[in-house]
Structure formats: C-alpha cells, structure tokens
Amino acid sequence: MRRRTFVSVAGGSLAALSGCLGNGGENGNGNGGNGDSTDTRDATETEDGGTATPVEDPTITIATYDSFVDGEDPVGPWLKSEFEAEYDATVEFRTPSSGINQYIQRAQQGAEIDVDLYVGLNVDELIRIDEQLDSALFDSLDGEIDGSDRVRDELRFDPDGRAIPYDTGYISLVYDEREVTPKTFEDLTDSENAGELIVQNAQQSDPGVAFLLWTIHEFGADGYLDYWSDLQDNDVRVLGSWDDAYNAYLNEEASMVVSYSTDQVYYGDQPRHQVGFLNDQGYAQPEGMARFADAPNPDAARELMEFMLRPDVQGVIAQKNVQFPAVADADLDEEFDAVAHVPPEPVTFGYDELAGNLDGWIEAWARQIVG
Amino acid sequence: MRRRPRLSELPVLVAAVATAVLLAVMLYYPVASVLAGAVLVDGRPTLEPIRSIVTDSFYLRLFRFTAYQALLSTIASLALGLPGAYLLSRYEFPGRRTIRSLTLVPFVLPSIMVAVGFAAMFGTGGPLNRALAAFGLPPIELLFTLKIIVLAHAFYNAPLVVRVVAAAWETVDARTVETARSLGASPRRAFLDVVVPQLLPAALTSALLIFIFTFMSFPIVLALGGLQLATVEVWLYDRITSLRLDEAAALAVIEAAITLGLTYAYLRYETAQAASRSVARRTRKRLFGTLDLDRIAIGAYGIVVLVVFLGPIVSMLLASVTSVSGGITLEHYELLFARRETVVGTRPDLAIWNSLVFAVGTLALAVPMGVVLSMLTARDTLTARVVGTLAMVPFAVSGIVVGLGLLQTVVFGVDVFGYRVQVTGAVAIVAAHAVGAYPFVVRTVAPALASMDDRLVESARALGASRTRALVDVELPLVMPAVAAGAAFAFAISIGEFNSTIVLVEGGDAYTMPVAVERYLADRTLGPATAMGSVLLVVTSVSFVVIERVGAYGGIE
Asked: Where is the ABC transmembrane type-1 domain (chain B) (predicted)?
C-alpha cells in the first residue's frame, strides 16, 4: 500500500519526489512539514486529473495491535468506515507484531516511519520510548485536541500530553465460583487455592505487567517479591501471553486467571466467568493514542483523534474494544453497563512512579520466577 | 574418503557466488549487525556483555536447564521416531508412501497451534484423562510440567527421525546382512553388527539436529510450561522485546557458540562415516500377516502414535467445528471465508495464496543453494567442514536474532554508496525462508553425495564430460531422492516459518497462514484460529503428497 502511494507521487513529478524525500529525511518535529506534504499531494492529484478541490483525501495510517482490527466485530473497521463517511479521508491500519518497538527501532536506525497515529499505547511503552530515544517520537498535543479536556483525569498517564487516553481496562481475576471465591490477595496464597491461579508473563504481556504492578501497589517495592514467593509456593502458573493464559483457563486447567473486568461482555454472568476484584480493587490500564512527530498527515490525524473522543464514538469504541470509555459522557448501551464491571477502587501507578523503577521490578520478578 | 573433483567450471562457480552473495545479504550481515552488540560498546571492542553473563549464576542455571530439557527431548524424539523408521523402511502396507509424506506435517503446524492442541488433548479434562477415567485409572497431570514440553518436542521432531533414519535404513545393503547370516550370525547379531552401524550416522544426525532445535525452543516452552520452565531462548526473546539488545546479543553469541560447536563436531563425524557404496535393496515384509511379536509391538506403537500425533491434531480439528455452546458448527469456516470482502483484518484466502507462493519461491531458491553447498561441503577437508559449519548458521542462531537482524538492516534500509537500499514484502520473506530452508537441503543431499561412488563421476569425466555435465547427468540423478526429500523439507519450512515472517510482514499484506493463525488467536474464541489452522493442515498435507509423488522420484524410493 505504502509503495503504491509512493510510486504515484514519484510518477507525478520530480519536484514532488524531492519534496517528499526532504520531508521524510530532515524534518525533525513534523509541524514545519505540514505545508510541504500538502503541496506534494496537491501537485500529484492535479496532474492525475483527479479531484477538483485542492486538499482532498489524505490517507491516515494507524499503527495498532491485531485485535483492534481483527477478530469478531472489532472496532477498527467500524472506525474506518464511520470516519471515511464523515471526512474526506482514507484510514489504513498497520499491525506490527513488535508493537511500539518497531517505531523505536526505526527511529534509532534513522529509517522512515511513515505512520500518522499510534493507537494502543500504555504507560510502560511510553517509559520505554523515553528511555530509548533522545528525540521526540510523538508530538505533544496538550490543548490541541478538541475534547481531550473531557478525558477523565485519573486516566491521563502522560505528563507531557503526548498520549491521549481513548479507553481503559481494569485488570481483575476471572474465576469459577463453583470452585473458588477469591476476595483478597491473601486468598491467592491460601493452600486451599493451590495450583488454581494462572497469570501472564509480565515480561511480555500487558495484563501480566498490570497484575505484577498491582501486587507492587499492594505490598510495596520491598514486599512484592515475598508475596510472589508465597504465590510460587502455592503453585501459581506464569504463562506467556493473555492468549496462552486464557486458553489454558478455557481448557479448565485452573479456576482463576488474570484477565479484564469486562469478561462477562463475552460470556455473560456464568459461574465460570465471575469477575474478582481483590481487596475491592482493580488495576486500571488506560490505552492512549499519540501522533507521530513525523506524521505525513498531521491535520487529518488530529481530526481522527478528536473523532475518537466524541461521546457517540467513545461508546462504540468501548463496546467493540470491550473496554471502558475514556470520557465521562460516552453514549454507552445499558446492556454493556450491566455486564462490564468497574472495580470499587481502581488503582494504578503513574508515569513518575514507574519511570526508572519498572524495568528493575520486572527483572527481579522474572529472575525469581525462573529460579 | 576420496578427493572430489575441483569445482572450477563457470556454471558451478556462478551458482556458488550467487549463493554466497545471498547468504551474505540475507544472513551473515543481518546477524552480524545484531551480534556486534555483544563485542562492541559505543564502537569499542569489549568482552563485558559476555563476561557479565558467564559469571552470573542465574545464567548458568538457565543454560543447564536448557541443555537438560533438550537432552530429554532428544531421547524422547528418538524413542518415538526409531520404531516409525523401522516400520516404514521394513514393512509394506497400503498408504505407506502417503504416511511418509505426512511426516513433514508437524514441521508446518504453528507452534502456538500445537500448544493449543496439546493443552486440549492432555489437559486436566482432555480426552486422554477422560479415557483413563473410563478405565478407572487416575488422571495424569501433564500440563505446566517438563513432561509435556518434552512430549511436544517429540511430536515436532520424531518425524525428522523417522524421515532421516528410514532413508538410511532403506539403503542398508541386503548383501551385507545376508553375508552375516550365512556366516552364522543370529538375526539379532546381524542387526547389531551390520545394520546398526549403518544407521548410526543417520540416527546421530537427527539426534544432533533435534538437540539443537530443542535447545533453542521457545513458543512451546512458553505456552505449555510457562516462565517457570524458561529456556535460554525465552530469556533472549525478553531481552529483545525490552530492547536490551547488548545483553540479547551476548546471549545469542554464547548460544550460537554452543550450537555451532555441536554442528562442527557432527560434521566431522558425518564425513568420517560416509563411505562409497552401492546398494542392493532388501525387500519389505508385509505388515498384515501372521501375528508375531514384531507385529504386536507395531500395534502397540500404533496406539502411541495415535495418542501423541493424531490426538493434538484431531483436537484442533474438533475445536474448529465446535461452537461456543459445544455443538457442531461450520460457523468458524463461514466466518473465515466471509472475510474475503473485508478491507481491514487478515484475509484467509490471501494468507493461503501467500503461503503457497512463498513456498514455491523458497523451493526455487533453497534447493539450488542447498545442492551447491552440498557439493562444496561433501569433502572431508578442514575447509569443507568450516564452510559446512558456516552454512549451518541458520540452525545455530536464534530465529529471533535472524528476524531482528533482517529488520534492522535490509528491511529498514541500508545505505550503500549513498543510496538507501530497502527490501520489503514478499521478496524479503522468500529470501528469509530460503535461508531457513537450505540447511535442510544440505543435510539431506550432502550425505548422499558423500556416500556416492566417486568412480562414477571419474568415469564420466574420463569419457570427456565436463564437471557440470557430470553433475547434471550422473550425480544429481543418483542423489535425486535426497534432493526431493530436501525439497519437501524446504517447502515445509517455508509454509510453517513464523518468527522471521511475522517480523518482515510489518502489518502489511504479505502475511502467511501461520501468521493468520496467530492473529486470529488474539480474538477471544478459538474458532477462527483453529479453522485457519485446519486449512493450513489440509493445504500443506496435500502439497507434500503432491510434491513427493509428482516429483517423479517419489521420495527416497
């Protein structure tokens, strides 16, 4: 797809090609490049004899994770068709398997990024970006996005205003009430529940790292390893990804698994799909969107971000992505409200608490688990 | 071992140079760019990253455990595979050749799919435990233990034993056995003294390959055992995803040193064992005859095969036609094929098409590369062994490192004389698949070349044939069964390849069937993933049977 766009631009005119290269290679912060890229597109489309109006149909490229676009009734295709119907723009998706690492490494190697938006950013990834890169990967958009002031304060996780939350999940337990009734962290280390808990590997899984952070929130940086030692004595299972863990749970290998508090949206109020908030808590894990500093279509990307924060769109994002909206005034189905549970006391760590600590916490934990 | 003719003629030379260039661009340079991190910090040479690993008791334990599980897995694969090799090479029965072709199937099943199949089959409430319960036996807790990892490794690798050892068994010279028998040796004695020495190289070849594969095992360990049973490769993957690339590089260097050392030792052994011989085939016994001890043992083996091989596969097939409520349904397949119209998301028809196109491309590249390298390495000289060892780098270096190396160099783009050279999409994937597949061609063709009677080539040369002509008219037809086996391997590797493909796809349109399976698994239900996995299974099974039959040589027949 990208190649086709590039060829059509290059075929349009040599001047357009040089403009394009200059834009990609030299432009550090993106904002100065807006005019250039718009000009380039105009020149090409006019020569193609295409559209009458000068600024038309930019292609917004979104990098995101698989399940945002793939699966049963995912949110991505809906977002694409709704946005394209209202705006003169095309939306395309990329789903790099290495996630944000793809773009960190591209930035490190001086390779072209050529994507406008990253959708699905969380706080640990933001910290990794800041540790790995000296230059800005994303724009600071404080105050530039209409409607971003409606985002719930407790979900904002970027002190620099680059990542705008668009939804949030709450990490909780999913359990089989016929077998167990976990209410507190201590219940998990109770010998009665030995071998009944499956968690994800915090080295590579979002819910895995969220659950680890939840235990650190509860027991402190000095105490969490002792708690995990008790969990290990109680035969906890640390599997790779959410898929691995949840598939094992569906195969009835254990009666508790770390997952999301929206589990009943899929399964309804079943005995095997009870949501457990340990100590009445749930670990909040907001997801954000951010615009690349080198975005080829910064204005269109901003419009898409604003679109994603509209109350009606927020409601659909939440339902299709099976998460909670980021704004307080989202239009949500009552049905969804009834089956998606919010923890009485959401807890989370902010950017400042995690920066400089996160890597060490995970490393010490993983070494203890491997033994 | 005799000297082999020099490789001085133009066509051979061109092929050798082309192979070398492709290896340099698609393998050595990308891998070196990653491994450099182990010995260079800020551009200065250092041993610090490696030193910090070898002095860390955590890492010593990690390596020890990795080697231990690889050893167990190798033994299990041999135990499961050797009877199969015996059965296929010594008995005649309907469908024998088809079963032979199907021994490649485990190679193409995505490991995550296998993990799901194993969990379904051997899990707490799985068919195995239900069957045990029906006989009043206590359940076996296999999941999350070393046992199930070893069993899954055996599932993957026993077919390799079957294939390689059966090929050797078929070339055991009937006359040597008859001679031993006529000199008064019992069947057992003749087997131990005459047959076993001739099988040993093949058995050790497969054992060594399996040790190396399972030493670097990753998705199986993660999905079935969890972090508690982590291997070096699991840890290496984490170093890369957390972008601690220096530590990853150092780890990969140590891992590669171990596996390359094993490869070199094996090559020394293999060439020392190879001998010129011509073969009188032994006739096969009919499987269905009077019931004797042999046939009872074969029956018992058949039951084990049903449980270990068919169990997980059938579990996957069943999951693909089972609805959430437990009934039989075709909805997952309907959903899969309704997706052809979607603009975003992963289209199954495109995944199937890509897989087949890439596999054909891989055949076209890997088979000539493998044959050229076999010629270069089929001699018993130090140079040949070093070249042979270097040619085996794809076995020894972690697939994750190869993927990362490709990504950071040719995919992101490399500055060459002021131009940014970039390889993306299908071309890069085919090249990467070929790099992963040619060692299998080498490993099947080189022993065949080495054990060929040199006098044949010498006669052809003496009669005036050029070196190329002798190769094309004499040597290749004689080793064609091995080439066909290598080609089938190359095809299988390409269809099943996952690690470098998913890196190179970059979320674009060049995804393959295994990538599609992985993407569908991101969804909450197993349905579409198992449906895609079943399509993958059918497409590839049919392809192998066709390749081996239509290949005009019918495998090693």
From this structure: 63-266, 352-547
Q: B342–A371: do the CB atoms touch at under 8 Å?
A: no
Tell me the ipTM for this assembly. Answer: 0.87
A residues 166..225 contacting B (CB < 8 A)? 201, 203-204
What is the residue-averaged pLDDT of chain A? 86
Q: What is the pLDDT of residues A75-116, one digit of tens each?
A: 999 999 999 999 999 999 998 888 999 999 999 988 989 999
Chain B residue numbers touching A366 (CB-CB < 8 A): 227, 238
Residues 6+ apart with CB under 8 A from B283: B174
The residue assigned the tokens 């590997």 is A201
Q: What is d(CA B208, CA A115) in angstroms, rounded to the nearest whole number? A: 45
Render pLDDT for B159-168 as a digit per residue (tens, 0 to 9): 999 988 888 8
Instruction: Give the DSSP per-residue string, B176-199.
Output: HHHHHHHTT--HHHHIIIIIHHHH
The per-residue pLDDT for A8 is 30
Phi and psi of B355, rounded to 5°?
-55, -45
The predicted pLDDT at position B232 comes to 95
Mean pLDDT on A113-142? 95
Using an 8 Å CB-CB cutoff, list chain B residues near A359: 242
Q: Are A169 and A208 spatial neighbours (Cβ–Cβ below 8 Å)?
A: no
Residue A364 has pLDDT above 80, yes or no: yes
Residue B275 has pLDDT above 60, yes or no: no
For B85-132, the pLDDT digits (tens) are 999 999 999 988 888 888 888 887 878 778 888 888 898 888 899 999
Q: Pick the closest to residue A39 from A57, A54, A29, A60 (CA basis).
A: A54
Q: Which residue of chain A comes nearest to B507, CA vs CA?
A: A95
Chain-chain contact of B222 with A367 (C-beta, under 8 angstroms): no
Whole-number Å distance between alpha carbons of B508 and B344: 11
Choose the CATH number for A169-284+343-369 among 3.40.190.10, 3.60.15.10, 2.120.10.30, 3.40.1190.20: 3.40.190.10
Q: In this predicted model, what pLDDT tens digit does every residue of B445-467 receive, in sequence order?
A: 887 787 777 788 788 888 888 87
Topology alike, domains A58-168+286-333 and A169-284+343-369 = yes
How close is the nearest chain A Cα to the Cα of B70, in Å? Answer: 17
A200 bridge partner residues: A239
Q: What CATH code would you report for A58-168+286-333?
A: 3.40.190.10
Name all domains of chain B by residue range, CATH numbers in brackets.
1-38+348-556 (1.10.3720.10)
Which residue intervals of B243-347 are DSSP H helices?
245-273, 293-305, 311-320, 331-338
pLDDT the model gives residue A152: 96
Distances (CA, A) of B168 to A12, B209, B329, B474: 62, 16, 45, 21
Dist CA B171 CA B197 (whole Å):
12
**Exposure b/e, B343-370, CB count within 10 A at least 16 = b:** ebbbbbebbbebbbbbbebbbebbbbbb
- pLDDT band at A47, cuts 50/70/90? very low
Q: How far is A231 from B445, CA to CA, in rounded Å?
A: 52
Q: Are A224 and A304 in contact (CB under 8 A)?
A: no
3-state SS record for A97-141: CCCHHHHHHHHHHCCCCCCCEEEEECHHHHHHHHHHCCCCCECCC
Examine the pLDDT at B288 and tell me if it is beyond 60. yes
Residue A309 CA to chain centroid, in angstroms? Answer: 15
Give per-residue pLDDT as tens, B334-359: 888 877 767 777 888 899 999 999 99
Average pLDDT (B503-513) is: 84
What's the CA gap between B72 and B229, in Å, rounded?
A: 14
Question: Which two tokens mark B363?
Answer: 């055949």
Is residue A122 within 8 A of residue A171, CB to CB? The reply is no
